[in-house]
Amino acid sequence: MSQVSSIAEQQASTTLSSSKSVTLRIARFNPEHDSERKFMEFTIPFEKWTTVLDIILEVKKHFDHSVAVRYSCRQATCGSCGMIINGKPRLACFTKISELDSDVVTVEPMNNFPIIRDLAVRFERLFDSHHKIKPYLIRDDSEIISNEKEFLQSPKEVEQYIQFANCIKCGLCNSACPTMATDSSFVGPQALAQAYRYVADSRDKGKDSRLKIIDESHGIWRCHFAGSCSQVCPKGVDPAMGIQLLRGYLLGFRS
Amino acid sequence: MEHQDENKEGIGGMINPRRYGIERVAYLLMRLSGLGLLAYFIGHIYETSKILQGEFGWNEVLEITQTTEGHVLLAIVIAMCVFHTVNGIRVMLGEGGVGVGKPARPDYPYIPASQNARHKMGIYSAIVLAAIAMFYGLGVMFGE
Amino acid sequence: MRESIIMKIHYGTALAAVALVAVHVLMRLTQSFSESLEYENVIANYQFIPYAGMLEIILILLSIHGFNGLRVILLELKQGKVYEKMVSYGCVAAMVGLIAYGSRTIIMVNMGMV
Lengths: 255, 144, 114
Description:
Largest interface: A-B, 53 and 41 residues
Strand order of the largest sheet of chain A: 1-3-2-6-4-5
Strand content of chain A: 5-15%
Number of strands of chain A: 8
Number of domains of chain A: 2
CATH superfamily of the largest domain in chain A: Alpha-helical ferredoxin
Structural class of chain A: alpha/beta
Helix content of chain C: over 70%
Strand content of chain C: under 5%
Shape of chain A: elongated
CATH class of the largest domain in chain A: Mainly Alpha
Number of helices of chain C: 5
Distance between the termini of chain C: 40 Å
CATH architecture of the largest domain in chain A: Orthogonal Bundle
CATH topology of the largest domain in chain A: Fumarate Reductase Iron-sulfur Protein, Chain B, domain 2
CATH architecture of chain C: Up-down Bundle
Oligomer: heterotrimer
Radius of gyration of chain C: 17 Å
Shape of chain C: elongated
Structural class of chain C: mainly alpha
Distance between the termini of chain A: 58 Å
Helix content of chain A: 25-40%
């Protein structure tokens, strides 16, 4: 099924109106009554600054309000709008039409996440894996009962983990990972990078317990340093670096 | 929703080398060369066991392997072996955290430090050395 | 066995095999390639105990490395308790089988039982 609709005629009358249009193909799939994915096509005008999220919302506004899409902050902070855009996992709010260099933009739900409907996917597996690696500081004392006011860190100590703390749990890394493509039990690059975030934090004392958790047949050893997770991360977390640094502890390269 | 489709990309997604750069290509080549070498290894153990049938059995094997097709196959095995070895050493070092860069505050355009020139050079070196070894092997086998 | 131990063995066997296989391949270049594959020369290789020992070690190292690699690939393709046990034990069985079969050749030729 394809439906070609155009709002090119509804151009705003300002002198800045763009004459450029793009064909947006949106994957439609409702697991409750559809047997396979279908695409709907729309022709939408765009400006130099128009993002993929903007044109999806244009479709919702003018053509089909039933398109299911998750979004919130529109500024690559919340991690809600992850989807496959022209074959690669990206944030819709962070991807400009102009940078895709294509007359056709195809948007599909992220791979390796169960589909709720259309572009919205379930995140339970990501949250469960994240929870599994104990994403919190582990130590016997706390800032409440300790004599000191807070646990101090030098700027150098903060530099060791701050990059990995930038994770917005968008799931793009899990979508790009070749192991996640076939392995349902793999913890995933997001959880592993977060495990390193806490292990590298000088305030944390839970390194051994976390290493034990990831040292299993579907844990860190199913990462093969393909690096696709880092290629798609929109926040510069570089999960591949975190995972290899974490593995260095298990291999004896670091202590 | 226990039986809901997990929407996994499947083997097609795992073996697709496009979209993510040379590191993903190296991942795929590593898997293919590994499986190819395992198949060759099993065949080689079987083939060399024919020597137990004496000179006659051994010469029968040579009639199959010392042919143009046999030499081409062996050249491919040489290439797979060299690539798998060189890339394997690169991956082993990378997986230990060597050459993956240092953590730092990320800044736009967020180029990942782990996907750096050193590892890319390692991958290209593996491919080039494999090609050189393959052509050297072809030269030795066909040069006689 | 913990996965980290298995993977350390995987990497260790790889590094050791690289060195020994290099020697094995270079032996084919000590004479002309086709001469090195003649029956008498191959028998002589097997009957030289250090070389036979090296072949045995290569056989063990590469069987472990190869079948563990296959195990990893198969585990990533499909999951489930029964399947994973089958794959793990199957790979170990194949490993042992190949080592046994290859060792038979080396030992019998080395002992002149051809």
